[in-house]
Amino acid sequence: MNDTVMVGVDGSPSSLAAVDIAAREARLRGAPLRIVHAFSRPSDLAPMIHGVLAQAEQRAAEVAPGLEVSRTVASGDTLTVLRSESRHAVLAVVGGRGHNRFGDLLLGSTVVQLAAHAHCPVMAVRGRPDPQGPVLLAVDGSPAGVAAGEFAFAEAALREAPLIALHVWTTWSEQTPHEGPANPLNVVVDLDQLREKHWRRLEEALAPWRAAHPEVSVEPLLERSRVRHALLEAAKEAQLLVAGARGHGGFTGMLLGSVSQALLHHADCPVTVVRGKQ
Fold first, then answer.
1. Containing H/E element for 154?
2. Of the candidates 46, 147, 183, 241, which lies 20 to 30 Å from 132 by C-alpha distance?
3. Long-range pairs for 203-209 at CB < 8 Å and ≥24 separation?
4. Interior angle at CA 11, CA 96 and CA 124, nearest 5
């Protein structure tokens, strides 16, 4: 079961849209699809099984005819159930929005918590319908960023899509000799030198992924900007944004919790958050 793509459903339009995306992801991987629902009250179970779960299976069959589909219905709070089920998945797909009619599945805080604690990458389906464009990778040099890069290149290869590798930097991310953040008011910064340093690091970070996936067309981009703003702007032209769960300790401190949450809540395309090895 460790090659399964799982999708959480709660009956909301967002979760049913996630079924479509999850079915496509499973088809790309040649993997089975598992539809997961958590319930806290027995009264929720019958309408879910006879209504929404059946509808989810039908949508999966329409998107990917012949796909192997199974159901998992478990009692418990949504986050606990989905996190447990993610142990047996290569990818968890969830809707970016939900409602509390069937157990409060996939409201914003649950998406963020699942992305932070799942045992596999988590794809939140949100943004414009049927997004087109390249796969967008947020590069930050952290351990989670390495795992995100591996996922993004593999995903671009599966989708036969180009990949944009974006690294965002600021002078505030630089370190003084005392390992503290630089203060532009009292530290002279050579912007050209810093830009060249970050460009080298970006190219070094991309080298192993390029070697592993020579079939992927890669465009490295370096931008001096606010991280959150730059990624959300770039996502407007992407079909998928891939980022590490945390970036603390990377060469810019990129993708700390607030940035990851902003991507999950505001990106204009699906977002996949990938955790590094714990």
1. helix 143-159
2. 147
3. 205/139, 205/141, 205/145, 205/146, 205/149, 205/165, 205/167, 206/139, 206/149, 206/165, 209/149, 209/150, 209/152, 209/153
4. 20
pLDDT in tens, 72-92: 988 888 889 999 999 999 999
The pTM (predicted TM-score) of the whole model is 0.86
Instruction: List, as one string, the DSSP characters of 230-276.
Output: HHHHHHTT-SEEEEES--TTSSS--S-HHHHHHHHHH-SS-EEEE--
Q: Fill in the amino acid letter for 181.
A: P
**Which element (helix H / strand E) includes 14?**
helix 13-29
Which residues 6+ apart lie within 8 Å of 249 measured at CB?
Answer: 142, 143
Residue 157 CA: distances (Å) to CA of 43, 170, 216: 44, 31, 6
pLDDT tens digit sequence for 182-217:
555 445 568 888 889 999 999 999 999 999 999 999
Question: Strand 122-125 to strand 271-274: parallel, antiparallel, or no bridges (unpaired)?
Answer: antiparallel
d(CA 163, CA 21): 19
Angle, CA 267 vertex, CA 153 and CA 129 arms, to 5°: 85
Give, as one character, the DSSP assignment of residue 215.
T
DSSP line for 20-68: HHHHHHHHHHT--EEEEEEESSHHHHHHIIIIIHHHHHHHHHHHSTT--
Q: Are 114 and 79 in contact (CB under 8 A)?
A: yes
Tell me the pLDDT of the chain averaged across its residues. Answer: 84
CA distance 54 to 69: 11
